[in-house]
Amino acid sequence: MQISGLINFAIFFLTLSSIYAILSLGLNIQWGYAGMLNIGVGAFFAVGAYTSAIITTPDSASRLGGLDLPIWIGLLSAPMIAGVLAFLIGIITLTLRSDYLAIATIGIAEIVRLVLKNEAWLTNGVRGIAGIPKPLEGINPGVDALLYLLLVLAILAGVFWLSDRAYRSPWGRVLRAIREDEQAALAAGKSVLKFRLQAFVLGSMAMGLAGALYAHFVAFISPEAFQPEFATFIVWVMLIAGGSGNTRGAVLGAFAIWAVWSGTELLTNLLPIAWISRAGALRLLLIGVLLQVILLTRSEGILPEKPPKGIATGGGPDRGRK
Amino acid sequence: MIDLLQLLIYGVVLGSILSLGAIGVSLTFGILRFANFAHGDLMALGAYLAFTFVVILKWPFWLSLVLACGSTGLIAIGVDGLVFRNLRRRPPVILLISSFGVALILRSLIQLIWGGEQQVYRRGIQRSLTWAGLSIKPDQITIVLGAVILVLALHLFLQYTRTGKAMRAMADNVDLAQVTGINTEQIVMWTWVLGAVMACAAGVFLGLDTRLHPTMGWRLLLSIFAAAILGGIGKPYGAIAGGLLLGVASELSTLFVSPAYKSTVAFAILVVMLIVRPTGLMGGR
Predict the structure, then answer these.
(1) Which of A130, B161, B208, B278 lies 20 to 30 Å from A190 when distance is taken between CA atoms?
(2) Domains of chain B (ranges plus CATH)?
């Protein structure tokens, strides 16, 4: 009993961490490679989750769809829709300086949050969408969760491989050049806006994919699940702790911070009963303090960025920017 | 017509709150060069401090307001000393990310200390004053009056004191200000105090107009940034104009779009503004 409980917990933990790792890789493409501040990670995560949920759930009278299509269509559509959204946003906002872009992405996140909450015809409002099908269910009863974990791990490996290759490619090199010195990249004849847009869309697609995987994992989504604290803030902490610009760091950070986050739950379970209702706030407080400690003491993360040989080395995403 | 005038009144009330918030954002943005994402939660903290004085200790409202604003100023200096000061030599984006974390810390602390429920300064419904079909609550008069007093005080401070002049100089051009021998560390401290006092007043007034909730500041942050950018970063007078404009625009928008989306109207105006005239109405940075 103890052992099987432990195994179940391990599977649960690894699945969620892997989903967060995909989010963190997506943010890494935007911030780590290209230096674009996206404070609206949760928006793309939520759009991916809702897209896949609407596509794969059975028909419902109270909202759009469901289309009752196979899950793989949902998993493919989620990054597409998130990518289209990112493209539309990017066209307007990516010419802005980085701090304005950050404010603009908060605005997008706010709009997405309000739409999820208020447009009940589309999303069923605050009641959320229930009964999202789980893939690989019933093939071999008893190991459903394990099979899903393997699927998520395989997708994570794919995203990781693509992202790592992109970093080493000439494309990644241009992104780093833009990040370090936009004017110089422009002078070298690179279309800054085009490269930024590509990175923004690709990163957001990874976030949308993570959203779909999350939706099929938990089977029920509502606007509550996409609060900025859990969908955006924690992803930033993961990336910065792991090492922005480093794909291994982004994945490691996701697992490490999710472990810390889960660990704080064990910690707050020791609190007296009267404090239980405030445990969530206490855990967020700890994560917030952790971010400050990382920024103050080791801002390059556990695994600092290591650009491939042949170009000037050194420097995190922030080096050399005014 | 009456509807329009009524919305205009509400718009000025909301605009007063936004202006006070935007002044602080504009000053910190102009002088410290980073968008302070913790500003909204500083507002909420001020509102909750005043809640302690007014509701729990039963002190008079104006005294509580002054005490709360003073405490918020001290807390802002404390946060600067603990976190921001040590990051100031780093690129501004790092400060931005750090302030995002500070925002979360403040919000969690509010929730830990005061709980996550909604609170009010005073129970019961206030009788509105009506005149020619228009109505306004006494609390709303307090808000507008308070905002006018604070803005006047700020104006006198910026125009006639050495510190105020130095602050405007730094917001205009940090390097030039340093060359002329302005003690920048001291000005930075004053910036935090002024910004925090205004933020606290904005938070208290927001709580007076609606209710207190741990996320009240974060929810308003987007509109405040929009007001500050609209007015031109580093221009406190621009921030006031931007705040009033967005307050009125947000309220008037309820004629056309669902009130649920009121908070995004400011954002929409901001986006248009950034495309058409990225330096703001008053030509800031």
Answers:
(1) B278
(2) 2-121+137-276 (1.10.3470)
Q: Which of A37, A38, A94, A103 to mutate to test the interface with B (most CBs of B within 10 A)?
A: A103
CA–CA dist A314, A297 (Å, integer)? 18
Q: List beta partners, residue B119.
A: B212
Q: How many whole angstroms separate alpha carbon B64 and alpha carbon A89?
A: 44
Q: Which chain B residues touch A237 with a CB distance below 8 Å?
A: 101
Q: Please count the CA atoms within 13 angstroms of the CA of A44 that sit on its side-chain side.
A: 35
What residue type is A181 in one-letter code? D
Dig out the tokens for B34 from the structure. 């980073």
User: pLDDT digit string (tens) for B134-182?
Assistant: 888 888 999 999 999 999 999 999 999 999 999 888 888 888 888 888 8
- Whether B107 and chain A come into contact, CB under 8 Å, resolves to yes
Q: What is the ipTM of this complex?
A: 0.86
Residues A156/A251, Cβ–Cβ less than 8 Å: yes
Q: What region does A146 belong to: left with phi over 0, alpha with psi -120 to 50, or beta?
A: alpha
Structure tokens at A103: 């404010």
- Across the strands, what pairs with A129? A221
Question: For residue A170, is pLDDT > 70?
Answer: yes
- Subunit contact B229:A92, Cβ cutoff 8 A: no
CB atoms within 10 A of CB A5: 9
Q: In one letter, which amino acid is B13?
A: V
Within 8 A of B34 by CB-CB distance, chain A residues are 99
Percentage of chain A modeled with pLDDT above 70: 93
Compute CA distances B83 → A185, A310, B99, whole Å. Answer: 33, 37, 9
Q: Which residue of B has its CA nearest to A36?
A: B93
Torsion of CA A199, A203, A208, A211, to 10 degrees: -170
B35 touches chain A (CB under 8 A): yes
CA-nearest residue to A320 within chain B is B91
